[in-house]
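tokens incoming
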């Protein structure tokens, strides 16, 4: 089994062309947003997490135990890992099962049992790194963050460290800054898509007054930067009365402020610390005041998604849009960056709800559609048509969740 390792010496020119049926589905975006390099990089990042998952399970000593069928909880007990690590262990097992390295017992036979299909292949992360460097070295920021998470897994598994201690320490912050950056194409695509959709859908009518825009979870400002560029590109900056970029993390917020305020001197660009889990009206956002509520990769961490969507709806003026860039769970059920996020409580400790929020973490396109409709949004749409794209390119997970206040 070669675990999908591409030829490391293949020249860039031999990159397989993406399925031509994708082109019409992505026609609303500039050609350089979804280019061949990006498609190949997404596939390679998927493969990289498979190799890391094999490596982590080997380091935990799971290989010999999986000669016999085991549920994740049984394996966790065998390996002496803490109960809180079982969901992460299940994710690793699922990753290997999807690649055929493990056999997963069908649900009717008890479900959730895994057994090795044969000897495990050796992880080849170094070869994959070289390949990523050849395709687009800027994407190594994603592999660096994945590596840091994988390196911490054994300590997190045994409870000698939490995911937060391992990955949110001051030493780890540069990894996040490099990842959540428009210089990292694997992340920048999320910002470009949702910023482009936001600028296009913004309700701008001649004679209307200035627009108040609200951003949630702005982080260090990469999504704000993308939004400003798109608004500028469409000549809309002059229509902005106020852009309130909010981020609870003081370190990230200050970085965003430093990076952006000087670049847009005439713009009322303000920064504040809004927490989406508490009423927004007490945090500087008047009801019915916003033409746009914009958030990139934020709303899936809402402790209570119904509550936060309700707050977004209440903050919008009639006709205003919520545009939430989200990583959209593909049919395989797994997103490669979950290898990082699933060991962080902010990602996993959310209220679930059988109807609207069946599990923590990323939601699928259809789940977002239902959640926004249930919250009272109109004209709900997921852009681009991610469900159709995922049928052609299963690893595709970039989209904007859009809904309008009637
Ligand atoms: C994935 S980052 C995205 C940052 C930024 N939007 C970007 O694209 O560069 C998610 C952000 O959500 C913020 N966040 C986490 N919990 C939050 C909460 N309860 N309310 C508001 N923001 C939150 C985090 O601090 C983090 O900056």
């Amino acid at each position: 089994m070669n675990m999908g390792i591409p030829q490391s010496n293949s020249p860039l020119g031999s990159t397989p062309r993406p399925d031509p049926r994708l082109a019409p589905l992505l026609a609303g975006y500039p050609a350089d947003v979804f280019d061949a390099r990006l498609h190949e990089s997404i596939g390679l990042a998927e493969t990289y997490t498979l190799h890391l998952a094999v490596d982590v399970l080997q380091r935990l000593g799971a290989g010999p135990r999986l000669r016999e069928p085991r549920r994740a909880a049984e394996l966790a007990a065998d390996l002496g890992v803490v109960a809180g690590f079982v969901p992460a262990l299940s994710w690793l097992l699922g990753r290997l099962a999807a690649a055929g390295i493990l056999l997963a017992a069908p649900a009717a036979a008890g479900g959730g049992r895994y057994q090795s299909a044969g000897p495990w292949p050796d992880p080849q992360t170094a070869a994959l790194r070289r390949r990523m460097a050849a395709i687009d070295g800027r994407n190594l920021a994603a592999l660096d963050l994945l590596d840091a998470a994988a390196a911490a897994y054994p300590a997190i598994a045994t409870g000698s460290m939490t995911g937060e201690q391992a990955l949110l320490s001051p030493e780890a912050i540069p990894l996040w800054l490099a990842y959540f950056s428009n210089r990292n194409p694997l992340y920048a695509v999320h910002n470009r898509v949702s910023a482009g959709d936001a600028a296009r859908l913004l309700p701008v009518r001649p004679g209307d007054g200035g627009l108040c825009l609200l951003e949630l979870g702005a982080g260090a400002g990469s999504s704000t930067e993308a939004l400003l560029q798109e608004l500028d590109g469409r000549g809309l900056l002059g229509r902005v009365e106020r852009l309130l970029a909010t981020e609870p993390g003081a370190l990230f917020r200050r970085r965003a402020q430093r990076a952006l305020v000087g670049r847009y001197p005439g713009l009322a660009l303000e920064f504040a610390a809004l927490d989406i889990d508490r009423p927004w009206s007490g945090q500087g956002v008047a009801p019915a005041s916003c033409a746009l509520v914009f958030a990139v990769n934020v709303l899936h961490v809402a402790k209570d998604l119904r509550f936060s969507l309700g707050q977004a709806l209440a903050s919008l003026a009639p006709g205003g849009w919520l545009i939430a860039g989200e990583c959209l769970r593909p049919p395989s059920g797994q997103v490669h960056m979950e290898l990082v996020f699933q060991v962080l409580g902010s990602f996993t400790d959310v209220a679930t709800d059988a109807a609207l929020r069946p599990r923590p973490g990323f939601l699928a396109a259809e789940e977002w559609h239902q959640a926004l409709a249930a919250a009272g949004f109109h004209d709900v749409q997921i852009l681009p048509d991610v469900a159709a794209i995922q049928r052609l390119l299963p690893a595709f997970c970039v989209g904007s969740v859009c809904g309008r206040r009637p």
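note: Strands lie at 70-71, 102-104, 113-116, 211-216, 240-246, 269-272, 290-296, 316-327, 378-383, 398-404.
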